[in-house]
Amino acid sequence: MAVRDLSSSSSSPELHVLAVDDSFVDRKVIERLLRISSCKVTTVESGTRALQYLGLDGDKGSSGLKDLKVNLIVTDYSMPGLTGYELLKKIKESSAFREIPVVIMSSENIQPRIQHRCMTEGAEDFLLKPVKLADVKRLKELIMRSGQAEEGKTKNPCTKRILQDDIDSSPSSSSSSSSSSSSSSSSSSSSSSSYHDDVSSLDDDTPSSKRMKLESRVHD
Amino acid sequence: MNTVVAQLQRQFQDYIVSLYQQGFLDNQFSELRKLQDEGTPDFVAEVVSLFFDDCAKLINNMSTSLERPENVDFKQVDSGVHQLKGSSSSVGARRVKNVCISFKECCDVQNREGCLRCLQQVDYEYKMLKTKLQDLFNLEQQILQAGGTIPQVDINETDTLLNFANVQG
Question: B155: closest CA among B35, B14, B17, B8?
Fold first, then answer.
């Protein structure tokens, strides 16, 4: 059964995930991981293709190739052409798609400051490759939960770059989406952002399911 | 109890455990096996087949880049190693991945000789793994044809034995 709109379904809806990776092998694996987790999957091989799929490639007239709303974007970080980070930025810059959670995948070579940069830019999560079933299950639960919490909420029109200190994940049980609850967290002048893992009850001891936990920082 | 099936299952079990123990495969391979079911009985075989195709292509490209000593495109080699490391990691091809680690180090210091050795080694390792996995998949087929089911294998016990030093180039 096709689900057209996540928010309109009361039963457990299927997420439609857009997976972006330049590696054929990785695309096949992530596709299977997502399908086995009851998600609909569309895979594309590059950031550029992802933007085309969403209709964000600058062709103003196009409504995109997608037939189903995308509920989650999972992208590799290091890709030729548009990197995962650049793709993330473009998505968060777009009024149509900034609310879609974006998850970055990368190998362990990625430096913490790059993870930090992605989270600051509004990435929902950072997955270490190779991605495992437990990671995808955890991710799905995260997204489903924040998706339900999103219903009825007014969206904060400000982007992450303007209000970097609004990225506090609410410690409440409902939502850990980076774009939600910004209004409820303080936008203090000495910004202290901390990313809390609200789903710490889930299996967190597999090495690849690490979430970034940042201590509070002061930045000017 | 069908003893033919039982024998084949035992053979399969022993063989796959030995592959883990000898460091050919790591935990990610068992993660891939979890994704296979009656509806997708060839999933793992398909993924590794893609991986081996990838290996052949990348090794060929890197070989070309390394060919002329006076004109090595280390950036291209590095890119190839990066991709190979990524995909080997994704399928659990442990030895291949480990060679890639050494390979990257040679690339970083622009050591052509070292790179050539690593290239040779990675070629050897992927072909070796291809043979081993073919044997494994053949065993699977034999079990299924004999009417049995493929055993689940818990590699947690074998994990502690997987303390191999990096394969050197």
Answer: B17
Distance CA B2, CA B148 (A): 9
The tokens describing B148, both together, are 């049995």
Q: Are A142 and A176 in contact (CB under 8 A)?
A: yes
pTM of the model as a whole = 0.75
**Cβ pair A77, A85 in contact under 8 A:** yes
Taking a C-beta distance cutoff of 8 angstroms, is the pair B29, A25 a contact? no
Measured distance between the N- and C-terminal CA atoms of chain A, rounded to whole angstroms? 50
| pLDDT in 10s for each residue of chain B, 169 residues | 569 999 999 999 999 999 999 999 999 999 999 999 888 999 999 999 999 999 999 999 999 999 999 999 999 999 999 999 999 999 999 999 999 999 999 999 999 999 999 999 999 999 999 999 999 999 999 999 999 999 988 776 555 444 443 343 3
Tell whether A171 lies on the interface with B, counting CB pairs under 8 A.
Answer: no
Among B31, B40, B87, select the one facing A132 at the smallest CB separation: B31
**Do A25 and B40 count as a contact with CB atoms less than 8 A apart?**
no
**CB-CB neighbors (< 8 A) of B89 in chain A:** 107, 129-130
**B47 contact residues in A (CB cutoff 8 A):** 25, 28-29, 32
